[in-house]
Amino acid sequence: MLNLVVLQGRLVADPEYRQTPQGTPTARVRIAVERSFVRQGEQRQSDFFDVTMWNKQAENVCKYFHKGDMILINGRIQTRTYQDKETGKNRTAFDIVADNFNFCGSRNGGNGGGFAPADNFTPAAPTYSRPVQEAPAYSAGNADDFAIIDDSTDLPF
Question: Pairing relation of β-strands 16-19 and 46-54?
């Protein structure tokens, strides 16, 4: 069985941090994910997803992410049932629970972590602490490394 969700988008608002009655940290984020296609003459549309995070991840997302930040989330879809308070009917809700998240860039769309270099920024030449070794030549291999496989019999698995 496979239940995997991968979303990349921008936070619509700052993460909402809460704790369960037992003291377990939880956070909810809402992200906007642009659709990969756009109809001619129309603007690109986005879908909005609510994502729940638990424990240390909840604390970290609240500490490092803010409205407008790009985020990459992988997780799973969970379903839950509840009773509608107004009608009394049973309802089903779909929740995305994050297993992991990563930085993807800044609001400026450039590099990750919100780093924006100054206009006069010139990267320094790379320095190496040890000499770079050349890759061995292909002639260094042994002809016995490659053997003919007899495929006339049944597969071993």
Answer: unpaired
**Who's near 80: CB < 8 A, 6+ residues apart?**
92, 93, 95
Q: In the chain, how many domains are there?
A: 1
CA distances (Å), origin 12, targets 9, 15, 110: 9, 9, 19
Over residues 58-91, the pLDDT tens digits come to 999 999 999 999 999 999 999 999 999 899 999 9
Tell me how far apart the alpha carbons of residues 86 and 54 are, in angstroms, rounded to a whole number: 30
Phi, psi of 61 (to 5 degrees): -65, -35
H helices of 48-117, in order, are 55-64
- The CATH number of whichever domain residue 59 belongs to comes to 2.40.50.140
pTM greater than 0.90 (yes/no): no
Nearest to 77, CA basis, from 153, 6, 157, 152: 6
DSSP label at residue 123: P
The two structure tokens encoding residue 97: 């629970």
Q: Residue 10 belongs to what domain range?
A: 5-113
- Which residues, 6+ apart, have CB-to-CB distance to 128 below 8 Å? none
Q: Do residues 32 and 10 make contact, with C-beta atoms less than 8 angstroms apart?
A: yes
Specify if 127 maps to a domain.
no
